[in-house]
Amino acid sequence: MKATALNPIVLIPARFGSTRLPGKVLADIAGRPMIAHVLERAREAGLGPVAVACCEAEVAAAVAAAGGMAVMTAPDLPSGSDRIYAALQSLDPAGKHDAVINLQGDLPSIDPSCLAAVLKPLAQGYDIGTLVAPITTEAERSAPSVVKCVCGFADGAETAAALYFSRNPVPSGDGPLWHHIGIYAYRRAALERFVSLPPSPLELREKLEQLRALEAGMRIGAARIAEAPFGVDTPEDLERAREALNR
Questions:
Q1: Cα–Cα distance measured from residue 134 to residue 118, given in angstroms and rounded to the nearest whole number
Q2: How remote is the C-alpha of 167 from its chain's centroid?
Q3: Which residues lie below 8 Å from residue 81, measured CB to CB, with a gap of 6+?
Q4: Domains present along the chain, CATH in parentheses
Q5: How many whole angstroms separate alpha carbon 49 and alpha carbon 105?
Q6: Residue-wise DSSP of 24-63
Q7: Which end of the chain has less Cβ packing within 10 Å, N or C?
Q8: Could you give the CA distance from residue 195 to residue 83 in angstroms, rounded to a whole number?
Q9: Does the reported pTM lie above 0.85?
Q10: Nearest CA among 80, 48, 107, 127 for reference residue 227
């Protein structure tokens, strides 16, 4: 693998329609819509331009009101990865940016340093970078909603190859388990290839999109951070986020 310098762009896929919590990207948190908080965290990282890839006028208007850039994309795109690729083609047709960070729009309190961390595997030559944090409780270990990443860190290493992802507690045996955090950094060519691939057998079985990349022979590197950022998926999560950010 060859290390290269990177010129990243941060893209935030945001849809008003959410299965578990409809409208969450515009939910009020401390007097601002959630997407405005995520946008601010991305800007604070200082890695490159930031834009929101959306498909509803209401979301675009909220982004504009927060001083951000919104790119309208087709409403029927199947995933956030497809949405950021469509936005990338619109924003940067000349290919100036060789790395793309996919930041989920439901992480209003994410530490901006996480965005720098997710680029580390790309700088080491991986096709895709992502993040993991140690699992510390039995509830986290057993919850199917907490995706586990199979990776082994050498002593002192900040990154490791991601070998598999599962909703089950893998691998077996003694040793740490790693909570996968759904933030990705793609080499531009890797993102283009990824969205061109059909869903793969293991992806469909585990319902985990990143397995498509592994099954196609792409290399994913995981960078470890101290703890998983708090995401908003349910009404209870939203109240927790409001309490945290109001403080």
A1: 16
A2: 17
A3: 13, 102, 184, 191, 194, 195, 209
A4: 7-108 (3.90.550.10), 111-228 (3.90.550.10)
A5: 16
A6: GGG-EETTEEHHHHHHHHHHHH-SS-EEEEES-HHHHHHH
A7: C
A8: 10
A9: yes
A10: 107
